[in-house]
Amino acid sequence: MTTEQLTKDRQISKTRQWEQAMIKLYVNFRDYSKDALKGFGGEDIHQSRVNSRKLLTLLSILDPDHSAAGELYTRFKKAQKRLGKVRDADVLIESFKERRTIAKKDGDDKTAALLKSVIKHQKDQRKKYRKKLEAELPQLAGKELDLLWEAFISGPLESLTQKKDANVVMRELEVAFDQQKKTCKALFKGPESESEEAFEALHDLRIAAKELRYTANAASFALNQKFHTHEEYYKNIQEQLGIINDKRVWLDTLQSIGRDELGVGKKTWSAFTDSLKNEVLEALYHNEVVPVAGKPRALPAEQQS
Hints:
The chain is built from eleven helices and no strands. It is mainly α.
């Protein structure tokens, strides 16, 4: 066999690896999307979203400027956004339900009543998100998507797989993560460690870790051995920073609704929101990803729940 033939065979093999991996994700996305619309099951929504995210990850490796798979990428992105709204609402509702259970067990009826109002408000929001998902997902994940998908697989996929190296992309993502981590460390060294800017920088670091995690998972078939432990490593980082982000989301959600909308007394409202603020700070100062100088600025005891 000639060198030219060997090279050609390797190229074909590489393309087939990409094709098989992407088709598996696509079939999963289509199947879970159909199931999600039948009853908005939490796991169906979650899996449909995860598989669309992995497809977006692989498309971004192959076609970073979306010139070859623009419409395909756009449809996956829109579907992921609609699925994400419902999924985030599901998670938020469950988190507040757990808190309400604890409040009731502790005999804290006022906090339990506050959380009941929040849950009702969030369920109303989720209904809106579900309606939008129900209206848009059939078009985003339907026959037109199949045509776009088949055209991509049989068309530009082969040439794209020959031009792009997932290992290079992983290294670029690592560099971006390290740079963002340096930015965070600088912010958290000084008095601005509890500023909005610092929290936003930490949020960006979490997103960078998530991107690395998804790339390590979705493109594992195309990555060198040295990257095979990256998924678990960056998953741990993402989860640590996610705890901080989740608590901020809970607090932001409450504040965006407002005390008057929920019909909650000022004292109960202040006690609960202050306790959430302290939880955010506690999670921040206990994370092992970005050390924070000093100690958290605790609220006065009479303001804590």
